[in-house]
Amino acid sequence: MKLKNKFAALLLCLVSPAGEVVAQTPRMERMMDKKQQNIVTLAALTAVGDLDGLKVALGTSLTDGMTVNEVKEVLVHTYAYCGFPRSLRGLQTLVTVLDEREAKGITDNRGREASPITDARGKYERGRDILAKISGVPADAPKADYAVLAPEIEVFLKEHLFADLFERDVLTYVERELATVAVIAALGKGVEPMLCGHMGIAMNVGVTPDQLYNLLALIEKNVGRGEADGGRQVLNELLQGKGLATYSDAPVNTLENGVKMQKVTFRNRFLIDVVGDLYLPEDYDGTKKYAAIIVGHPFGGVKEQTSGLHARKLAELGYVTLAFDASYYGESGGYPRRIESPETRVEDFSAAVDFMSNHPAVDAGRIGVIGICGGGCYSVSAAQIDHRIKALATISMYDMGRARRQGVGDVMTYEQRMQSLDAIGEQRTAEYGGAARKDIRALPEKVDEHTPKYAIDFLDYYDNPQRGQHPNSTGYYSYTSLAPMMNFFPFAQIETISPRPLLFIVGENAVSAYFSEDAYAKAAEPKELFVVPGATHVDLYDRPEYLEITLPKLDRFFKQYLK
Predict the structure, then answer these.
(1) CB atoms < 10 A from the CB of 200, how many?
(2) Are strands 502-507 and 439-441 parallel, antiparallel or unpaired?
(3) Domain for residue 318, yes or no?
(4) Distance CA 32, CA 24 (A)
(5) SS3 of 345, please?
(6) Are residues 311 and 280 in contact, defined by beta-carbon separation less than 8 angstroms?
(7) Average pLDDT, the chain
(8) Alpha-carbon distance 16 to 14, whole Å?
(9) Taking the CA atoms of the chain, what radius of gyration do you get in angstroms?
(10) Does residue 15 have a pLDDT over 70?
(11) Residue where a domain stops, chosen among 432, 462, 484
């Protein structure tokens, strides 16, 4: 039955605009406690002179429980690294915020003042010893070249910085180094040696590499991608020089049927941290190499839903599997949040292959991929350019480009598409000019007698706590993402996947069936279109009666081709 035009682009396309949705917090942003995150944000915004952003951050920090004196101390601390003008403007902004909060009847905790200094020695000696303590470099080490050229700067540094500031105990050494690294990272190019030095000091006083990556994620969020990427390069080189792993080992948890799961993080070529769940079979033997399967989630989904379910079930069958959150979603990094970028989604699959190819449990020559729904078209595109993917299966695949260009059922006209692009362009102009970002939902906001059944099926999965509901999967994404999605043609070179095998699993009654049928027709051998009788698109996500059909099929497929 032909879909009505009003619903042509409903599913996984433009619905009614929604207000800005609270962004999901990536894992990397949760490695520091709230106070530490606030310190980093305050320092970075002060360093770049973003007083509007700083005003908001000051209010947040006070509401979160930082005392006035702690906040003040962060702003004072910044003077040593970005100068008095920035520091003073930060303090002036704090005065304004405090006055406004007082006018609203908010009484902020002043907190304690710094303890009196009882060390009777001169400031130079005290600062020298503090620097030696936190840096691990002996006080009598040879002087740096700048200190030889200008010995007075060494005096200023040790007296004013490490005595006048670091000796004040309102903030800990860890907190001061987080503020320091945040300021220097926010400044960007030209200060890389200082950034490297203070990252080293930060680790020396107890800051972990993960926390430093966390800090840089906040720099990306509050300052810019370029500054964050520059900091990541410095940190990567520092860690490599120390022979340290990028991320600390996460615990391994045992699930039902003996499957083991470990949280992992890897980086794509855009330097976005991608977070996944790695599953190991019950009889996992660390001396052996296993066939591996990477599972990509649907558009709007996260790894805790159907992709994680399939990854766990396949691990029960003896594979090492990985379900990951796409960039800009779930626990993975990337700012702004909820950006749908086809290029990045495709890259995420290759980054997952990077990770699995280097994992000691994985035979790099036996890596397969499963893409579910929207993840299906992205996985097909990835397989065309990544020959390390030795076998590819899709489940209920959606061609996201076609769905955006033509709507569900190909009922969107050319004129409607052009009108959409006009509107998207206007929205980009408005957002660049300061207008609020426009987010839309890939699911119906309400259900009535006109709502298609397939749309109700999606709601029954994503909004149902007994099935796929998850706080990181809201269904919202940026309106302006529609344009690059319209420009995505995932099957343009699908025949080049051959001679690697393709398996398309599709429900007999799936609204999306034609996407898999068309892809199958264009693909070269070996290929198979496997139709599940009676199943809808969403049925294949998690319904036990259909998993009993699809999981053995997937197992046979991968056992045949991942030899």
Answers:
(1) 17
(2) unpaired
(3) no
(4) 16
(5) helix
(6) no
(7) 90
(8) 7
(9) 27
(10) no
(11) 484
pLDDT in tens, 423-473: 999 999 999 999 999 999 988 888 888 898 999 999 999 999 999 999 999
- Tokens linked to 115: 């303890």
Residue 313 near residue 551, CB atoms below 8 Å: yes
What gap in Å lies between CA 126 and CA 112, rounded to an integer?
Answer: 23
Which residues is 441 bridged to in the sheet?
476
pLDDT of residue 13: 36
Measuring CA to CA, which residue among 63, 33, 64 is closest to residue 174?
Answer: 33
Locate 380 and state its tokens: 């097909």
Of 447, 467, 484, the residue at which a domain comes to its end is: 484
CA 415, chain centre distance (Å): 36
Q: How far is Cα 244 from Cα 391, in angstroms, rounded to an integer?
A: 34
In DSSP notation, 79-134 reads: HHHH-HHHHHHHHHHHHHHHHHHHHTT------PPPPPP---S-HHHHHHHHHHHH
Tell me the pTM: 0.70
> What is the b/e burial string over 388-397, where b = at least 16 CB atoms within 10 angstroms of the residue's CB?
ebbbbbbbbb
Q: What is the pLDDT of residues 326-353, one digit of tens each?
A: 999 999 988 888 999 999 999 999 999 9
Considering all CA atoms of the chain, what is the largest pairwise distance in Å, rounded to the nearest integer? 88
Q: Is the peptide bond before 526 cis (omega within 30 degrees of 0)?
A: yes
Q: Which residue has the tokens 């009922």?
A: 411
Domain count, the chain: 2
Report the distance separating Cα 307 and Cα 300, nearest Å.
Answer: 12
State how far the Cα of 179 lies from the Cα of 215, in Å rounded to an integer.
Answer: 10
C-alpha distances in angstroms, 189 versus 46, 218, 334? Answer: 17, 17, 21
The span from the CA of 252 to the CA of 230, in Å, is 32
Q: For position 184, which CATH number holds? A: 1.20.1290.10
Q: What angle do CA 444, 449, 451 make, to 5 degrees?
A: 30
Q: Measured between alpha carbons, how far is 499 from 478 in angstroms, rounded to an integer?
A: 37
Nearest alpha carbon to residue 213 among 265, 172, 175: 265
* Residue 159: band (very low, low, confident or very high) from pLDDT cuts 50, 70, 90: confident
pLDDT tens column, 58-93: 999 999 999 999 999 999 999 999 999 999 999 999
Output the domain CATH number for residue 480: 1.10.10.800
Peptide bond into 552 cis (omega under 30): no
What's the first-to-final CA gap in the chain, in angstroms?
44
Residue 86 domain boundaries: 32-114+168-207+209-242
3-state helix vs strand vs coil in the chain, percent to 5: 50, 10, 40
pLDDT of residue 248: 45
pLDDT given for residue 135 in this prediction: 87
> Are 11 and 63 found together in one domain?
no
Residue ranges of E strands in 221-360: 252-254, 260-267, 273-280, 290-296, 320-324
Report the amino acid identity of residue 344. Answer: T
Residues 6+ apart with CB under 8 A from 35: 64, 65, 66, 70, 175
Dist. CA 332–CA 343, nearest whole Å = 16
Q: Tell me the two tokens of residue 157.
A: 């540094």
